[in-house]
């Protein structure tokens, strides 16, 4: 598979499986990362003593995030820093972190403390009862704008209407997964990685855990409107081909309209009237060309993604992995 996984980099340290891996992608999180570590480490220690690892992926941050992570790896040998060569985006940074993990169970969590790490013991309990995946389902979302809530709601509605794979509403990527789920996920070679959808697609026993999503601990969201739109189109195009079918339906509807118009025009001609007016002509041309352009655009979205996929470039590039004083360069 054409992916630059982190495990070859960490091979020497993989002999011993940990009970829990916690994976957090971080992009410019200098304000939250220390507090995140401060809250997450005791949760893990209480659960499994030292048998955990905390993998912090620095996704091309341009602030102090990496320096803080590197310093923390020296303070605690359970902390592993994975430094990506540049910013690859949340979903790919999370994938890089998952590929670096080796725990029997892996918690994927944001580094901004919107998802409380204190929920891990409850997630572990649910998993003890047989779940393959325990995903956080948001009841309340503090500190989010009204706009974000409305657009997120619209996104989930559209997705559930279009996608044959049910993606649970009000969930993010905050989830505890068994190793086998992580393994299957890492073997899925798609470039557009909509993690929550891909994990839903895998199936098995997936159980929600209701929680209140907190406000960010510090800093700002890394998902401005433009990134949200990209994220949504990526999700829809990789989980549904219904938009292409809608294009066909639109074509059919407008063909019927065209035939009716033609019939009307011919009928009027034989009745001795010619239909006057450039306005109606212009309206018809505008409507039909607009529909054509939209349909072309939809097809283009899919073709663009096919092109991206067949290039088969690595999903992300790891600069190096830091464990304590040890800096393991990625073998590229
Ligand atoms: N993130 C990342 N790379 C990016 C953008 C975000 O690794 O390019 C991380 C970010 O540091 C955070 C998580 O992904 O830990 C979720 O991002 P954010 O909190 O900005 O998204 P929101 O919660 O606002 O949807
Ligand atoms: Mg956040």
Automatic annotation (TrEMBL):
<keyword id="KW-0808">Transferase</keyword>
<feature type="transmembrane region" description="Helical">
    <location>
        <begin position="246"/>
        <end position="270"/>
    </location>
</feature>
<keyword id="KW-1133">Transmembrane helix</keyword>
<dbReference type="InterPro" id="IPR029044">
    <property type="entry name" value="Nucleotide-diphossugar_trans"/>
</dbReference>
<keyword id="KW-0472">Membrane</keyword>
<protein>
    <submittedName>
        <fullName>Glycosyltransferase family 2 protein</fullName>
        <ecNumber>2.4.-.-</ecNumber>
    </submittedName>
</protein>
<keyword id="KW-0812">Transmembrane</keyword>
<dbReference type="InterPro" id="IPR050256">
    <property type="entry name" value="Glycosyltransferase_2"/>
</dbReference>
<feature type="transmembrane region" description="Helical">
    <location>
        <begin position="276"/>
        <end position="303"/>
    </location>
</feature>
<dbReference type="Pfam" id="PF00535">
    <property type="entry name" value="Glycos_transf_2"/>
</dbReference>
<dbReference type="InterPro" id="IPR001173">
    <property type="entry name" value="Glyco_trans_2-like"/>
</dbReference>
<keyword id="KW-0328">Glycosyltransferase</keyword>
<feature type="domain" description="Glycosyltransferase 2-like">
    <location>
        <begin position="21"/>
        <end position="182"/>
    </location>
</feature>
<dbReference type="GO" id="GO:0016757">
    <property type="term" value="F:glycosyltransferase activity"/>
</dbReference>
